[in-house]
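I'm stuck. Please check this protein.
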Amino acid sequence: MRCPACQYNGTRVVDSRPVDDNKEIRRRRECESCSFRFTTFEKIEETPLIVVKKEGSREEFSREKVLRGLIRACEKRPVPLEQLEEIVLAIEKELRRLGNAEVRSEDVGEMVMDSLAKVDEVAYVRFASVYRQFKDITVFIDELKEIMTRQTNGK
């Protein structure tokens, strides 16, 4: 590591500590030549995760976008924000675990719906109605019947 003050190519680590939920390491360094102290951050470089939309366009996976969809589906529902953030992290973790650089938006949507169904059925129906673009009330009723069947089979 080169010293930003004197450009000497030798530094020693004075202090290290994890930051950002153990995703980064903050290091205090000291130049072995001029004793100048500075801070560096080290983190794992993640490959971008690309979402392929229905019409074929591509965009980088956005935790914020998924979280916004969850928040909207859970408006006025007793679901804490922390739980929604955990869902988003779990979905991203699972997508990265699969090891594909590109994922279909349909797959992301299904993962969101599966998670919401376990958390809050009203939020699930809200999200599904927008995501699946219910064309009429019969499709909506079919979805509700499926939820009711799952409830009776689960008990």
About this structure: The two ends are 60 Å apart (CA to CA). Strands lie at 11-19, 24-31, 37-43, 50-52, 58-60, 102-104. The chain has a mean pLDDT of 88. DSSP finds five helices and six strands in the chain.
